[in-house]
Design brief:
By secondary structure, the protein is mostly helical. It has a domain at 59-155. The protein is 62% helix and 0% strand. It contains four helices and no strands. It has helices at 3-26, 63-88, 105-128, 132-155. The termini are close together.
Length: 157
């Protein structure tokens, strides 16, 4: 493990934590403590404008989801193969969530199979709750993450 890789992981963790903290603060609701409250005379009733909601309906196992799940599975398989090869040649698992599983091939395979099952489950949850863009995004993000891990693993053999 190179020192530059460790520092890159630390910096990205710090940046992610800062972004999360700032986004939580920005999303806070309510008036500021010293903000004046509106008077009742200034309140004007507003009629809500409603637009018809267009329902996006598709089956969960449509062609696009099948393709995304196959790609996510292939990415997990490639990540498993590269990670296993690197660990067997004396490398170290950098992902602290995967590290406990990296002591055996079966544990590593279980981790990547569980990751794929989690992607499909989360996509199904978003599908059932009507968040169809998020349904697809889960797979796309997982595929990108797997391909990034494979690229990193291949570069650091």
């Amino acid at each position: 493990m190179h020192a530059s890789s460790c520092s890159l992981i630390r910096v990205s963790t710090a940046v992610s934590t800062a972004i999360l903290a700032l986004s939580c603060a920005v999303a806070a609701q309510g008036p500021l403590p010293d903000a004046p409250l509106p008077s009742l005379a200034a309140v004007v009733p507003v009629m809500p404008v409603t637009q018809p909601r267009v329902e996006v309906t598709h089956k969960f196992w449509d062609k696009q989801n099948k393709f995304l799940f196959i790609a996510a599975s292939a990415g997990a398989a490639a990540d498993f193969a590269v990670t296993r090869a690197n660990l067997q040649s004396g490398g170290r698992e950098l992902n602290p969530m995967v590290r406990p599983f990296g002591h055996s091939s079966a544990g590593l395979a279980m981790n990547f199979a569980g990751e794929t099952a989690a992607v499909i489950s989360l996509s199904y949850f978003f599908h059932k709750t009507g968040h169809h863009k998020m349904e697809r995004a889960v797979s796309v993000i997982n595929i990108a993450s797997s391909m990034g891990a494979v690229s990193f693993g291949l570069m650091h053999r």
